[in-house]
Design brief:
Alpha-Beta Plaits; two-stranded antiparallel sheet; four-stranded antiparallel beta sheet
Amino acid sequence: MDVELFLLGISILFFLSIFAGQAGHKYGIPALLLFLSVGMLCGSDGLGIQFENLQVAQTIGTISLCIILFSGGLDTKISEIKPVVKQGVILATLGVLLTALILGFAIWWILGATMASAGIGLGTSLLLASTMSSTDSASVFSILRSKGLNLKNNLRPMLELESGSNDPMAYILTITLIGILNLETPPNYISAIGMLILQLAIGAVAGFLLGKLAIRLINRLKIANNSLYPILVFTICIFIFSSTYYLKGNAYLAVYISGLVIGNARFAHKRSALSFFDGLAWLSQLLMFLTLGLLVNPHELVPIIVPGLIISFIMIFLARPLSVFVSLLPFTKMHKKDKLFVSWVGLRGAVPIIFAIITLSEGVQHSRLIFNIVFFCTLVSLIVQGTTLANVAKLLGLADKPTKSKTLENFDLEFSDEIKSATSEIRITAEMLSKGNHLMDLPLPEKTLAVMVKRNNKFFIPTGKTILAENDIILIITDDQEALQQTLNDMGIA
């Protein structure tokens, strides 16, 4: 295939995905579900794009997850997760294990009743359950943030902590069971448990230490071209992931923890780096879900619709709630409504599919069936849970009203998160000028400044004596949101 033709095809797929994502945001449909759908529509059973390269799909998935987890860590404030760190860690470990066990035995029974001829044993059922035992960080980060949910009781940081740190447990369970199924000799369970603990420990320590080292490196390097700082942070992310892998630690946990460490520290050009990774994370999600959508053959999903639906609903309504409530038993002060919502945010996404791809590449018996069931259950999870998160939060009384803030359209600037400030744009009307046409005549309250004026696509810094004209756009800044809102109310434009 010509490079130009390949690039043309990729660009068209990206355009379709972006437009679909925009439409999905308008109607409350998760963008990730639409990315998957675009891939499926353009695949072998749709427009006919043939894509069966498991190695490429796994590589794309691995790199994408690395970026998504690092970006999730960068955006998470340690001050927010401190009160819920115990709950998050328990859900990410014990919760994953319980989900795998409950769902595994359920799958064994379901497939035995609906697909007896396939001869699915308990080991294969547990492997299938293990691939789906963790919530997907890409899905959770994307949906929670795109919905703009302001959740009460620190639920959002707890869910993001869980989804960002539970992949290692699911990964190790999956790899261990693949090894058991591919070995003829009985496994050494003590050795497997020891390996699990060691990988998690190395991953956590490596992520923390390399994150601290990265901060020093960024701040000490004097790079003439400021545009290279986000590239430097990206390079650090990839280095931490790959080096932790060769240290025999869990690389996914390492990049998430290093993201937390770096994101909560001061470093040069932090704002541009965060903005860069936000866009890169979305690109990774788009590419990953498109690839996974192209990989599946929709006609192969038809025979597993019935068992897939049963497994999906057991996963959503039984396995996930039981594992959450049992894991959170020590936290008696946590309200039942909080636990119910945590149970509902058990979204599956790219991670289970990537784990299923690993079973395909390892040649595990029934691996294609595992892949198809995992893909189908992921679709059901995104449809059932992903589209109802906001409504369930409101139903349980856990959703705060989002803070309204106007996005700047005429002034392309941002302030550091460390600066407590709020900005807005004011368009001057004839009515405002009737009480005086000087800037000092505007009824701006205390702690509010007019810092810039846009007139006829030209910008200038005003003074109190600046004569204003109709349709001038003024950038105002206050030291808190309440003062800003009061300013707008006083001027009759909010």
